[in-house]
Amino acid sequence: MLLMRLSSSFLPLLTAVLTSLTHGQLLPGTQALTPNPDFSATMVAGIDKMALRLIEQSKTGRKPTREKLKAALGMVDERLSFAALDLIGDTNSPALLHETESCRVFRVRWPVFDGVHGEGLYVQPKVKPTARVIYLPDAASTPEKLVEGFLLQSGAEVIIPALISRDSEFSTNDKFGVKTNCSHREWIYRQSYELGRHLIGYEVQKALAVVDWFKAQPEQVPVVVSGEIEGGMIALFAAAADERIDAVSVQGWFGPRENLWTQPLDHNVFGLLKDLGDAEVASLVFPRRLAVVHQGYFELKSPGPPAKGVRDVAAPYHLQAPSWEEVQSEVRRAQGLHPGPWIKAFDQEAESKDVAAHLLPTGSLPVPLVASVPLIPTDPTRQKRLVRELETFTQRLLVSTETERNEQFWKKLPLKSVTEFEAHTAKERDRFWNEVIGRLPDPNKPMNAKSRFVRETDKVAIYEVTLDVWDDVIAWGWLCLPKDMLRSGRREHADIGKLTFAATERRPVIVCQHGLEGLPEDTITTDATQRAFGAYQAFTLRLAEQGFVTFAPHNPYRGGHAFRTLQRKLNPLGLTLYSVINGQHQRILEWLKAQPFTQPEKIAFYGLSYGGKSAMRTPAVLKDYCLSICSGDFNEWVRKCVSSDMPMSYIHTHEYEIWEWNMGRTFNYAEMAALIAPRPFMVERGHNDGVGTDEWVNYEFAKVRRLYNKLLIGNRTTIEHFDGPHMIHGVGTYEFLKQKLGFPETGH
């Protein structure tokens, strides 16, 4: 029987417990907690403050390298080589668009990856080229709008690629018949980020494919890349990544990048600010020439409410122009990394000839001349081709990244013994935490535990608890203690109004995690008129009524944009919302293990929905959770995040914080479950739960069952299907908890 009889060493602790309960309605070892009307908002605000502080601190100690830049941009796919540009034309629309005495203008394309092309305009001089230029327009512009200035350059060979635009016409799966207000750029970002690719990386690769072709020509001349606004961003990254580019000009894109989280979602680059602000990216261009032209900036804000029938899913953003002083300051930072005249800022009055003279002092870069050019119409079908090609390429990665996980994870697992398996997965656990989730330092504030008595039922006493974690960051939750904690032996009681409570027995603990926009009390309420009861079925309270100690912590995925922007602020630091959540749970575990009424080695995790998401990511790294139950979330997660064919995929929803960088190449849900193994693991799945389909849930769980069977511990994992919706069923899972925690024993 799991009773702890009082010994002489335990009496002082019990006395303290009873005294605190009698006089202050507090839990042992805690101070009085002042009620807060919204601890959730307080928590989110504190994390926000910490994130902004970490962003500011990131400016010191950066160590930029090309390898880090390429990895951050997802430049992992090998480019295809080609001998010549393809001409795009037919009998109705010939490829040759315009011709002068000195040059011809063609519509062209070139291969980049299998099925993916760059497209744009090609200005071909009729004489030996004196320079080769890649000029990248802004995403809101087109090659046709830029071609005039290059037509009469004396001998320059120019390619003007088209970027994925900010329109939203093709940001949907046509078979669903529902349009979204998601820009084409965000649409591709949503599909590629989870797979370790990035739209920015794709477009850099398209530009570098042109560099490959330029460098393959028999007559070598300087190669210059230039761009406006987002084209300037691509130009800067391309020159930083590839030393074959001789000079780069950036117009309308250079300045402090610490506000990355306010910009369009497709600017979100995981881990960028750890090592690479604009000054650090620029330093990778050194000793080649870089011109920063403070022209062409514009304010870019989220579009207003979408038209009727258009799904509102786009992430909010506000891209603002940096001041001339901010641009100069960032240039000075770059010069501090590499002193010298290699980088120069030009103000709004700068002339093209001065920029050209800085880029190539030899004078081989011609200056655009004023030209009278007939209007060249934009290719009306090009943008759809560009979007659909990248979408098709990214969707194919769902297959290849699963193969990659098999090769890099499953085939390397030792399965002859649990001991060997655990030694191997310890390294994988560190990789998951450090490289995928993102790891913050362990909690470093004194715990400063505070509590207050909330209310009671006939069987359970409920307390609210807060714990300090880091500066400005707390953990918060509701604790449920069964009133029958003393079943035999010496009885000591303390009265709080009608409450009689004695803490003389240690019990297993179940941490019960709420889902999206939830609160701890949502998992406790028994009011059937509340929506929360329909989902959670008061599982925190019901398990306490069965004799378990339960704790319902708050995870900070509440508050709409307030919490979603936390992910935006943390991602450029190589962190995620779960970097914070896992730190909070470290502190929660530390506190729970120290309580006189808990069994430290028997603390379980059970979460629904976003709490089920937590059930995969938190016990996977925190081994003090002795088992985990994932309810209403277990899935072929990568497919759910990326697939354009699944109606329930996140690319069709407003949850723009959901994607985790490179998860598809590293850890899907089966791999996370492998990090929980050999501890018990269970999935709770309702047939009518719209977060997934039985087929894909079972497909992913089959890998988990096979692993446990191979390790000869097949009785430690199971899945329960029930005929119901997105909710806690509480049948098979409750039995699983009783069996694996060895409680309650006979008599309870």
Which homologous superfamily in CATH is the superfamily of the largest domain? Alpha/Beta hydrolase fold, catalytic domain
Text of the CATH class of the largest domain: Alpha Beta
The stretches of 5 or more residues where confidence is low (pLDDT under 50) are: 1-24, 487-501
Rg over CA atoms, rounded to whole Å, is 30 Å
Domain count:
2
Mean pLDDT: 91
| Strand line-up in the sheet with most strands | 1-16-17-18-22-21-23-24-25-26
Could you please say which CATH topology of the largest domain applies here? Rossmann fold
SS field, number of helical segments: 23
CATH architecture of the largest domain: 3-Layer(aba) Sandwich
Assembly state here? single chain
Query: Helical proportion?
Result: 25-40%
Sheet of most strands: 10 strands, mixed
Number of strands: 26
In percent terms, what proportion of residues is strand? 15-25%
Distance between the termini: 10 Å
Would you give an account of this structure?
- The chain has 748 residues and is an alpha/beta fold.
- The chain has two domains: 13-57 and 421-634 and 668-740, Alpha/Beta hydrolase fold, catalytic domain (Rossmann fold, 3-Layer(aba) Sandwich), CATH 3.40.50; 66-359 and 385-399, Rossmann fold (3-Layer(aba) Sandwich).
- 34% of the residues lie in helices and 19% in strands.
- The protein is built from 23 helices and 26 strands.
- The strands form five sheets. A ten-stranded mixed β-sheet has the order 1-16-17-18-22-21-23-24-25-26, sandwiched between helices. Strands 2, 3, 4, 5, 6, 7, 9, 10, 11 and 15 form a ten-stranded mixed β-sheet that branches. Strands 8-13 form a two-stranded parallel sheet.
- β25 (681-686), α22 and β26 form a beta-alpha-beta unit.
- α2 packs parallel to α16, α6 (199-215) packs across α7 (230-241) and α21 runs parallel beside α22 (694-710).
- The chain is elongated.
- The chain starts with 10 loop residues before the first helix and ends in a 7-residue tail after the last helix.
